[in-house]
């Protein structure tokens, strides 16, 4: 049964819809030479950009539903292949089946890719597609094909890594402010501090999107593991000598393009950055993160029995000192507000329970067969290990709201990465130090 566009979206007039359909057919047929094909694709792109949400939804439905493989051709090719299996004609039949399965959608997407700014157009088009997809599952086939194309076009072999400095063009620096997704950049002074001599910022770029960072990572060159993001972001802290640092802390990793969801290159960026840092700063021995636990509170709210168990040993003392009812629900309401952190004795009472909660969340919280925490999925999937849990490491309002101020260090130990990835993929085993495993059982 066909899914209709949302009621708030205006449908395209019949004449305009028919005209777009004909343009798409011409584009899929690849009529004429390369210049004609690019002109048609450019015209279609311009048409798409001029549509409102309802029109864009119908445009994408046209491509998804009317430009797939021809079922009759596929059935004929499949029957011919089955009959040819084991004979000299098998390989030709296989090629014919593969050609029959190739949809016209692919040709349309490839035509868009060829126009100026075509790569960025397709990335933004997929961002629209992802928005519509939740309510219109018939777009899924188009999304799969577009994701597949983007994965090929954004292969890490095509990407360029660049270090971004304060001398970068203002337009690019503005994009860092715009795209920073972990710790908000509050001002130009804040940004300048993050690009100082004891800091590094690296980004991946695509040659066809030279002024659009795809993902960037912010690094602090320090001594020993960091346990406070506020300290790392302190604009008034003295600048350290990066050549005396022994530790590189990755404290923010931001994907910038919604349309590239599912296209993974963050792990390659980190490995490239580690190689560059080791070359430039031979004293560096430790490569680790100071990472948020962005869904800790969400998980705790969904698992109140685990929350209660983690705080049970200290709940009566906490409640008495905080002036709240001695039950876990009252404590769960108190923690996100953050005012309790100013009371040193209350903070000491709360710390053991929060450490236990964070440890259980990381090591036992699941989404399917993967860690519930999205940042943990990324770093543990790249071979890092949970090294240390940090109490009151993020005392910003967002930090308390998401994770009660808790953060975690993931350690990248080059000699262990491959074994950790293998254990994670094959067995779902998470690499973590004994202290964190002990806390999870406490």
TrEMBL record:
Residues 157-413 form the Malonyl-CoA decarboxylase C-terminal domain. Residues 67-154 form the Malonyl-CoA decarboxylase N-terminal domain. Gene3D superfamilies: Malonyl-CoA decarboxylase, catalytic domain, Malonyl-CoA decarboxylase, oligemerization domain. One of its GO terms (biological process) is fatty acid biosynthetic process. One of its GO terms (molecular function) is malonyl-CoA decarboxylase activity. It holds the Pfam family MCD. It comes from the Bacteria. Transmembrane segments: none annotated. This is Malonyl-CoA decarboxylase (MCD). It comes from Azospira oryzae (strain ATCC BAA-33 / DSM 13638 / PS) (Dechlorosoma suillum). The lineage of its organism: Bacteria, Pseudomonadati, Pseudomonadota, Betaproteobacteria, Rhodocyclales.
